[in-house]
């Protein structure tokens, strides 16, 4: 009896020890899982069921002066899947009857609805069959996305993103620039990327084993922020007119390239900056001339020719060194002791011209005779005040020439003379427009600009340019120069241009030779016209420039485009006509 009891106790003890040991193992394992490995296992679990989603911040719009969109962002959709969940299912697949749907049938339907490629989708799924993510098709517009969504394929997951479109296409393409796979590539998109770019956010949601999103499981990790709106001074309607005008003229002249600008004389706002050829930012690859990716009006330098004579004349008057009726004896050519020689564009006998007549006939000899009354330093400083030799401070645009000149001119004896009729110096079309804006605005130069500022998502305006005006020449000097420039239109190098009915116009032509490196100047030309109207109270400045025209290499070939564009400007803005005929200074004595 005693032995039996002892054996029974021993068995109980062994059983209890086994139970205790087993419990201890479970407890240790439980502690290991719930405490020691808890964080790691939790993350692994989340990785299998928690799906990260990028929330795209929308890139801001670029708009014209009236709010018309030049660059816009629209929603696009990527269709993704979890390859491990791709399987046949029961569904309607866009129809009305429930049926068994194979994977192949589903992919065929997705391709038809989206315009995607079945082979590509199969390849992406097969690349990692056990993964939770793969792209099936990218960049769908709303119409195609909705068609895919209506198929009700259970293992499809949309990913929303923002895409860039340009409603005006090539009309303002050289100004807006464009986006690429690596971000902003050119134009205002690039210059103002910090203003325009949105900030992406992120969120996660959890889904069950069947791939369906669990209700209420979405957690926002970071809010997305939209970019600001870039407000330009450009008038999109006028921009279109300018674009069409110079494109037509350039083709007729067989010019290599062309530019046109329209400026509000009183504010310095650029209303149109047109280029030919230009780029359509919706289809950049269609543009074979990479030089057209940007605006040549802002970036291309050239020797401006005789348009600069207007600045020299104004400086002479401002310094009291000449007047509109000042007399000069002007031969056809002029030689210098250091061996240099200049001549006028057409042969003529020695003439008795006033300063007005010198501008009217665009005499190189005459402007240098009077221009030498100013020192080289004075002429250089006046040119800088008019906006030459320096990048435009109020314009942010990639590719503008630095043009950082010194405090004194580094000119040879020949350039010192030639600079007075626009040879041997470099300008851009915008800088020439700045000279004529200054003259049109009673001698006050306002930095030309094409951006008003950036309005951020919270309504604050940033990046507004500094457009404080500077008095370059006196109002009297500017007004007298403008009055002299009317003679160019009525009886000078623009006499062949049909008048703009009802308006007095002041303008200057330019025909510059094109340098060919060490060969010197060749037979190619750059022709231009810059002018303003109405001359008695100028409101708008227009410039047109044609590079290497073939059918007409003189500035007269540029005149029709100038007249057309100026007429469009005066009509569009309903500028009051001149009330009397131009009162002109005598051109001869």
How would you portray this structure in words?
The model has no long low-confidence stretch (mean pLDDT 90). Strands 2, 3, 6, 7, 12, 20 and 21 form a 7-stranded mixed sheet that branches. The protein has a 5-stranded antiparallel sheet with strand order 14-13-25-24-23, sandwiched between helices. α9 runs antiparallel to α18. Helices cover 33% and strands 23% of the residues. The chain is α+β, with helices and mostly antiparallel strands and 589 residues long.
Average pLDDT over all residues:
90
Backbone shape: elongated
Q: Which radius of gyration do the C-alpha atoms yield?
A: 36 Å
Q: In percent, how helical is the residue content?
A: 25-40%
Structural class: alpha+beta
**Segments where pLDDT lies below 50 for 5+ residues?**
none
Strand-residue proportion: 15-25%
Tally of individual helices: 18
Largest pleated sheet:
7 strands, mixed
Total beta-strand segments: 25
The span between the termini is 156 Å
Set out the fold topology.
Layout (H helix, E strand, L loop, with lengths): L1 H35 L1 H12 E6 L6 E2 L5 E13 L7 E3 L7 E3 L1 H12 L3 H10 L6 E7 L1 H8 L6 E10 L7 H4 L2 E2 L2 E2 L2 H5 L1 H4 L4 E6 L12 E4 L6 E4 L3 H18 L3 E8 L5 E7 L19 H4 L9 H10 L8 E4 L2 E3 L5 E3 L7 E4 H6 L3 H8 L4 H10 L27 H6 L10 H12 L3 E2 L5 E5 L5 E2 L7 E2 L3 H17 L14 E10 L5 E13 L6 E8 L11 H14 L17
Parallel strand pairs: 2-12
Antiparallel strand pairs: 1-10, 2-3, 3-6, 3-7, 4-5, 8-9, 10-11, 12-20, 13-14, 13-25, 15-18, 16-17, 19-22, 20-21, 23-24, 24-25
Helix pairs in contact: 3-5, 9-18, 11-17
């Amino acid at each position: 009896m005693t032995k039996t009891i002892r054996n029974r106790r021993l068995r109980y003890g062994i059983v209890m020890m086994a139970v205790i040991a087993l419990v201890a193992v479970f407890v240790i394992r439980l502690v290991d899982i719930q405490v020691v490995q808890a964080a790691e296992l939790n993350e692994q679990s989340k990785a299998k069921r928690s799906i990260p989603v990028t929330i795209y911040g929308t890139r801001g719009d670029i708009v014209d002066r009236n709010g018309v969109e030049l660059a816009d962002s629209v929603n696009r959709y990527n269709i993704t899947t979890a390859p491990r969940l791709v399987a046949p299912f029961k569904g309607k697949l866009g129809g009305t009857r429930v049926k068994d749907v194979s994977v192949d049938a589903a992919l065929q339907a997705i391709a038809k609805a989206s315009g995607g490629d079945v082979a590509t989708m199969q390849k992406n799924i097969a690349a990692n069959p056990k993964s939770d993510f793969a792209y099936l098709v990218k960049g769908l517009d709303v119409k195609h996305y909705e068609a895919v969504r209506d198929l009700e394929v259970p293992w499809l997951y949309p990913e929303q993103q923002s895409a860039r479109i340009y409603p005006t296409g090539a009309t303002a393409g050289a100004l807006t620039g464009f986006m690429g796979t690596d971000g902003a590539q050119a134009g205002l998109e690039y210059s103002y990327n910090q203003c325009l770019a949105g900030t992406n956010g992120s969120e996660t949601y959890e889904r069950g084993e069947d791939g369906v999103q669990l209700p209420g499981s979405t957690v926002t990790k970071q809010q997305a922020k939209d970019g600001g709106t870039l407000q330009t001074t450009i008038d999109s309607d006028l921009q279109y007119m300018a674009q069409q005008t110079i494109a037509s003229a350039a083709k007729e002249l067989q010019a290599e390239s062309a530019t046109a600008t329209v400026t509000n004389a009183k504010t310095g706002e650029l209303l149109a900056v047109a280029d030919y050829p230009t780029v359509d930012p919706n289809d950049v690859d269609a543009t074979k001339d990479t030089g057209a990716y940007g605006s040549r009006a802002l970036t291309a330098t050239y020797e401006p020719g005789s348009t600069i004579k207007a600045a020299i004349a104004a400086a002479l008057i401002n310094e009291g060194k000449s007047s509109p009726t000042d007399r000069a004896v002007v031969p056809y050519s002029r030689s210098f002791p250091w061996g240099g020689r200049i001549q006028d564009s057409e042969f003529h006998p020695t003439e008795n011209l006033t300063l007005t007549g010198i501008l009217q006939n665009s005499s190189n000899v005459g402007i240098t005779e009077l221009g030498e009354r100013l020192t080289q330093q004075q002429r250089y400083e006046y040119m800088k005040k008019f906006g030459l030799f320096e990048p435009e401070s109020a314009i942010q645009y990639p590719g503008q020439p630095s043009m950082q000149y010194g405090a004194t001119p580094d000119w040879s004896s020949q350039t010192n003379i030639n600079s007075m009729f626009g040879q041997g110096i470099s300008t851009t079309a915008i800088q020439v427009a700045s000279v004529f804006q200054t003259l049109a605005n009673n001698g006050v130069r306002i930095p030309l600009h094409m951006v008003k500022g950036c309005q951020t998502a919270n309504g604050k305006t940033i990046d507004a340019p500094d457009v404080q005006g500077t008095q370059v020449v006196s109002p009297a000097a500017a007004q007298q120069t403008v009055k002299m420039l009317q003679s160019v239109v009525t009886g000078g190098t623009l006499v062949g241009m049909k008048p703009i009915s009802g308006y007095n116009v002041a303008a200057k032509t330019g025909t510059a030779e094109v340098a060919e490196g060490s060969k010197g100047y060749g037979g190619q030309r750059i022709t231009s016209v810059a002018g303003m109207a109405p001359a008695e109270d100028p409101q708008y400045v227009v410039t047109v420039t044609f590079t290497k025209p073939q059918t007409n290499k003189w500035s007269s070939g540029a005149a029709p485009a100038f007249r057309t564009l100026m007429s469009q400007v005066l009509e569009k803005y309903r500028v009051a006509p001149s009330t009397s005929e131009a009162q002109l200074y005598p051109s001869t004595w």
